[in-house]
Amino acid sequence: MTAAQFADKIGISPSSLSHILSGRNNPSLEVVMKIHKACDYISLDWLLYGEGEMETDVDSDNNGSFPGPLFDENSLFASNGTNVPEYRKEIEVKASTIPPKEIVREEIKYIEKPARKITEIRIFFDNGTYETFRPEK
User: Fold this and answer.
1) Which of 42, 43, 34, 40 is nearest to 63 (CA)?
2) Burial group, residue 35, by CB count within 10 angstroms (0-12, 13-18, 19+)
3) Cα distance between residue 19 and residue 7, in whole Å
4) Terminal C-alpha separation, the chain
5) Per residue in 82-137, pLDDT tens?
6) pLDDT at 48
7) Would you list the DSSP string of 76-119?
8) What angle do CA 7, 53, 22 make, to 5 degrees?
9) Is it the case that residue 7 has pLDDT exceeding 50?
10) How far apart, in whole angstroms, are the C-alpha atoms of residue 39 and residue 49?
11) Minimal CA–CA distance to 4: which of 74, 59, 52, 102?
12) Which residue has better confidence, 62 or 113?
């Protein structure tokens, strides 16, 4: 049975089941109850707490249910709990191997220039002429 078929069987969307299987979301009590209702041979203690046997002693016909494990890979019902996806937030981020940049200290130097002196003044007139004045030395 595929994950999509199982999601359809218990009455949830395939994307919701995918999020549960990938570890992004935990199953709600409603989802656990839907699993138990669809597969009544699965023990509630095992579903809720991971304790005891997965299957209970129910008649062998299982009310049309399927025998054996629900999925071959990424089982929602894996009891060891060691399958943690690499993209989970809990994964430690490795430190960068690039050394930090040096701090550059910038200095500004003000250089005093000698005082300016007036060397010439020109006055322009409206008739196109001008006069030049030079200070006496």
Assistant:
1) 40
2) buried
3) 12
4) 109
5) 555 555 555 566 666 777 788 888 888 888 888 888 899 999 999 999 999 998 87
6) 84
7) TT-SS-----TTSTTSPPPPP-SPPPPPP-------PPPPP---
8) 35
9) yes
10) 17
11) 74
12) 113
Closest among 80, 66, 79 to 35, alpha carbons compared: 66
What are the tokens at 95?
A: 């430190």
Residue position matching structure tokens 């989802």: 31
* Alpha carbons 40 and 47: distance in angstroms, whole number: 11
**Residue-wise pLDDT tens digits, 21-30:** 888 888 888 9
Mean of per-residue pLDDT scores for the chain: 77
